[in-house]
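User: Predict the full complex structure for these chains.
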Amino acid sequence: MPMRHDGDDAVVPPEGPSPPAPPAAIELRGINKSFGAVRANRDVSMTVRAGTIHGIVGENGAGKSTLMSILYGFYGADSGEIRVAGKPVHIASSHDAIAAGIGMVHQHFMLVDNFTVLENVMMGAESGPLLRESIEKAHGELTRLATEYGLHVDPGAVISDLPVGALQRVEILKALYRDARILILDEPTGVLTPQEAEQLFRILSALKERGVTVIMITHKLGEVMAITDTVSVMRRGRMVAERATAETSTEELAELMVGRKLKAGVSPRAETVGAPALAVERLCLRDRYGVARIDDIGFEVRAGEIVGIAGVSGNGQSELLEVLSGITPMTAGRIVVEGREVSVAKPARPDEMRGLRLAHVPEDRQRRGLVTAFTARESSILGYQRDPAYNGRLFTDYDAVDGHCRDLMERFDVRPPLPGIISGKMSGGNQQKLILAREIDRDPKVLLVGQPTRGVDIGAIEFIHQQLADLRDRGCAILMVSVELDEIMALSDRILVMFEGRIVGEVAIKDADTSTLGLMMANAHEGASARGGTSGAEPVA
Amino acid sequence: MEEAFVFVALTMNATIRVATPLILCAMAGMFSERSGIIDISLEGKMLGAAFIAASVAAVTGSPWLGLAAGIAAASCLALLHGFACITHNGNQVVSGVAINILMSGLTVVLGIAWFQRGGQTPSLEASARFMPISLPLSEFLAEVPILGTLYSRLVSGHNLLVYVAFLAVPLAWWVLFRTRFGLRLRAVGENPKAVDTAGISVAWLRYRAVLICGLLTGIAGTYLSIANNAAFVRDMTAGQGYIALAALIFGKWRPWTAFGACLLFGLLNAIAIRLQGVDLPGIGEVPVVFIQALPYVLTVVLLAGFIGRAVAPKAIGEPYVKER
Amino acid sequence: MSAAPAELPRWIDIGLIPVINICLALLVSGLIILAIGENPVEAMAIMIRGALGYGEGIGYTLYYTTNFIFTGLAVAIAFHAGLFNIGGEGQAYIGGLGVGLAILAFDSTLPFFLLLPLGILAGAAFGAAWAAIPAWLQAYRGSHIVITTIMFNFIAYAVMVYLMVNVLIKPGQMSPESREFAAAGQLPFMHEMLAGIGITVTPTPLNLSIVWALLCCVGVWAYIWRTRWGYELRAVGHNEAAAVYAGARPRHIVVAAMCISGALAGFVGFNEIMGVHHRLLLNFPAGYGFTGIAVSLMGRNHPVGVVLASLLFGVLYQGGAELAFEVPTITRELVVTIQGLVILFSGALAYMSTPWVTRVWRALLAWRAGAAAAEGA
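Assistant: Here is the predicted structure of the three-chain assembly.
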């Protein structure tokens, strides 16, 4: 099948899977959607056949969720046409989508925590102004749906008492209760245990058997292979391919998702790797629900090497950076930085970690890396605001800060080079360069970097990569988290792959290739722990 | 014995009088806050309604027109609050403060301009007020010991708006927990996004909530100026809107418990008035102001989680903006 | 408060839009004056003349301004930390109590130059303490600071009534006031100080505390924008996640910001008790704490803006009093009304006009670009 990979204008005309093709349940034609300067969807067209399970795969930010939110009326498309069962429809709100027979299970559940299952299901689809008749009807419906599709949930249970798997069933029940013939699921297994996922798939199959069309957004290729009939691949806002699941493979999909644009490393690898500068042992982080976000991780980063952490986002990478930088306290294990031990008993806060010459370029610069309301000058000392270099006994020496900022801006080519500019008004690339400049200016022993080039223009990407490589060559130990596999491949000396809070693989750069890594990221590679023991799992609720 | 009984009866009656506007305002605040809109302008809306109701009643001689005008005035202010908080995503606390201050000024400015009585409205004839009503058989039953006396002395003999206030509680409960509107209202204060994705308009739901709030604060204000009193006096709400807010929080945003808190706070006030200047043996003169301040102290203690926990509706104070 | 769209230049955002908001507030005020049958232009003229036209008027205007600077700064610094302090009224009340207690205790033993810092410290300490409790409850117990500070206003009122009526009242007197302070415990009036250098002005309540108010402005400005603590305070207010990343401790900062805020509000007591009344009495905060909210919103939480807004409100208060005196149908409460409108338009509806302004600005840019293109052709 003809296909181009370089993110140009190629839109592959959707070719239906093997005949006889059932009628189209959904047709999208030329959908465009921009958020400010970001083009989330570019001329996207897609056809979903009735009564099939259709997967949409793509990396984070590929535009899958935006597309489905347009279909569900949460955003309006800038241009394009939506047809449901062959008829053009205008979907301006969720109300219209529901009326057109579309239901959606959002990634973050849209449930009212202190309501019962029954109340959540009937809200918005009540039978009359008084609740009594609605309750009776909903009770009957729930019982029917439960037996028909295996969607067992106690209607009287309060949402906040239920496990995630049950919440998802409630969301599906909500859609079915509104007579949805088309069900969209956004990353449905992201929060599920393997057993719960297995159960979900059985439900989806039951839905399909009864003629419901299912669209599933995911980045887990194993699931796509296991359950879908057809699959569409999105990359950078475009629809780049469509395949019949039976005729494709995980390797092909992984390649399509990531693209093949792989470059050589920006500079020769460091010859000499020094002693471990950062050591992590049996590190664990449990969230307030007791779910393990980081699950017993151990690794080392040596002076003069870049260790890349690959993985689909949401598999614990963000949490790992926050724990290592002292923002989130760990729940077990220990970290050794520069000979100092940090553990549950001996915690260290972000300023103390900085004191150990551990620098951190956070993943989300707008949320953590700088204060958008601050001037560039002020943002250029964030985290170092107590440094004696900028402070007298009482007052901050803004001449010194100003000089420091100018110096950083000049050396790192930050534009415009005005220390007085409001940080939020700088472009993403320049913000990132300023943050990077601030963090590596002090010659850290350890640098944590999250998504170093997310939302950064091409020119700045090269520059940032070069800076990281130079820093490595000066003997810094760098731990880099990125969802861009290209970036990981281009910079790292060693690659660790994270999946569901664990490290599931380690590859030296010379042995790494996209498809192996892609499979590891989906935890579908050889030797991956099988998702066994799922058959025969009972409803959790 | 007889003396004690009279004391109790008088205190209970005073409690009912004091608690009436608190109950109405607490129910009003409940609708607004359950929908996610903080309302610290109960005070201002009640004050505006009290003034307009008294003015209209004085000019027309009709308590009913006064009531209608009071409700209309409070509803306008509620719409203003909604316009700032729902349409323009303004800060809900700032908007509330603005309405309170605006009303404490405007009622006096207009009062003096219209009636030239130092901010007071003309005294109303009985026919222009809501007067106490004798319930059927109260005369007859007054002679029956205990129950009869209770009925004739306590249940009977209040004005219409008192009964409205006491009926507002079961009604509010019924609307909130037994109707489709109530279900959606409770949902929008917890998770507006869930409501939006269920195909319901968040803004329209919240506007209806603040309008109900306007209606009830309008009745409360009207009660103050033309039922409980015979004229509007400047600043006549005297912080009762805030006490009602405290009662609402103390009652954990629920109708019956808020109602209980209103009665408790009303009782504290009634006792404080009774004990004014009374020397109790062994204690000396009772510091009445502390009894009056007790509602505030209790609310602070409750909010701090030292006795139970008052959990506000989850989305309260947050404007609903669809995020990217 | 929602943010203004990024595309407008800064001078429109911090210069033009606040002016538009105040104009809207004044416009509605004019309509109210019109509605009660008076001429708004004439009323405005009387107010300005009454507030600024002669020595006594100016003195009163500046005396009011002093209080507004204190409460305006108090609200502003809390805003910078992302907190809404509605409790200025109660903190002013308790701050005044502190001033009064300190002076009553020491005015017979200590000289003026020691009583002056003592009064300031006492006002600050009491005001700060009264603000620290709601702050602590917010930071460590999660109770909403708006609600607790409202409650603390009423509790402060109760405490003061009790103390004045039962404890501090001067024996043998009906009205609840303390004894008068000795001369050493009184701040000099401005007219006294000016008389000292040979300038004679009409006596007004304006006193030395206005100097302290201006010093506080400088101090608050320096603290917020020129110290590392102010840096962290603003970081917490703008973006708590970034502040945590930077090593700041949000809970400590919440408490510290509220203490400073309360101390500033407490200085109203310094002006009123030590500067004007020279005795402890009831009701001296007179709504200044609430006016501080309007002052801060209008002054965009910047000390310079606070001074300007305080002056405006000083003019409104003093001018309003003159107006009420000259025009019988108008009362002083007109000023309170205007204050409410200012809070409404500068606060809750602060960004109501931005879509319109943005549209005009875009049209202007397009027109200018068009003109430039025409010129180039």
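Strands of chain B lie at 279-280, 284-285.
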